[in-house]
Amino acid sequence: MLKVLYIFIDGVGLRPAAPDNPVHAGNCPALCKLIAEHSVSIDACLEVEGLPQSATGQTAMFTGTNAARQMGRHCEGFPGPTLRRIIHKTNLFIELTRKGRRCCFADAYMIDKISDLEHRRFKSVTTVMALTQPETILMRDDLLENQAVSHDITRTYLVDKGHDLPLIKPHQAAEHLIQVARANDFTLFEFFLTDLAGHSRNYQAACETLIMLDQFIEIVQALCKATNMLLIITSDHGNIEDMGTKSHTRNPVPLVAAGPGAEIITTNASNLTQITPRILRVF
Ligand SMILES: [Zn+2]
After folding, report:
1. What residues does 231 pair with on adjacent strands?
2. Could you state, in order of their start, the residue ranges of all structural domains in the chain?
3. In a designed cystine with 232, which of 6, 51, 90, 183 is the match (CB 3.0 to 4.6 A)?
């Protein structure tokens, strides 16, 4: 039975080579090869003026609704009440669960029970979506058993915050992610340090983030291929590909699909809203 791994990388757009574009084969050869050989370029601006933002972009990605047009603007960061309503009504996890598919959000929350998450004031689009199907949520114990992945891949962020757990290499995190993906039908992993690096305007930091991410992606891709899993990679808007500005960009984003059913994901794909319906079609 088909298994799908969807890696959502925040803030990575497509832009021709330039001295302030760190997204090149020198930093991220595996990602660049996937983009060159297995992707289409899609629009993240959603027919709305201004710079695309995370809350509306991700809602479009995970619900299939043009949330930016519905809001009349691009909304930053965490979704407010209207966007949350859109996500609650339907999303990728709800629809796949309805089809009898087992879904998982592979990013570990450092909590011991779901209610600890429900009470958080600021919730990302992915957190709001995961809470609509709480069985998708992985927690501290899962991470300790290597059955989940830290959002920053190596767990450096968690260790710096005082959590007691071993640091791991990107290739180990990739192996953990594939284990999770093999135990589920659809697995989502979200990585947002690329967006933070883009906002920092620190070119060196952006390169380091991309190099680490690429070591992870290289192994993820090899293991997806070895296990005949469909790998999807995309982003919600541009940012890191233009370190000359600390804001997002209106550049298109890559939609990578490699493996069984890849052509259903990418053929004639033109914008973020098409990703969810196409994933549903693959299943
Ligand atoms: Zn974003």
Report:
1. 5, 258
2. 4-282
3. 6
CB 79 within 8 A of CB 274: no
CA of 54 to the centre of ligand 1 (A): 4
Looking at residue 131, what is its pLDDT?
A: 98
What is the spatial distance between Cα 206 and Cα 234, in angstroms, rounded to a whole number?
18
Average predicted confidence (pLDDT) for the chain = 97
User: pTM of this prediction?
Assistant: 0.98
For the domain bounded by 4-282, which CATH number is listed? 3.40.720.10
Q: What's the gap in Å between 26 CA and the centre of ligand 1? A: 24
Q: How close is the Cα of 111 to the center of ligand 1, in Å?
A: 24
Find the 50 Cα to ligand 1 centroid distance in Å: 14
Neighbours of ion ligand 1 (CB under 5 A): 10, 54, 195, 236
State the burial class of residue 220 (Cβ atoms within 10 Å of its Cβ: 0-12, 13-18, 19+): buried
CA 226 – ligand 1 centroid, Å:
31
Q: How far is the CA of 115 from the centre of ligand 1 (A)?
A: 26
CA distance 259 to 34: 11
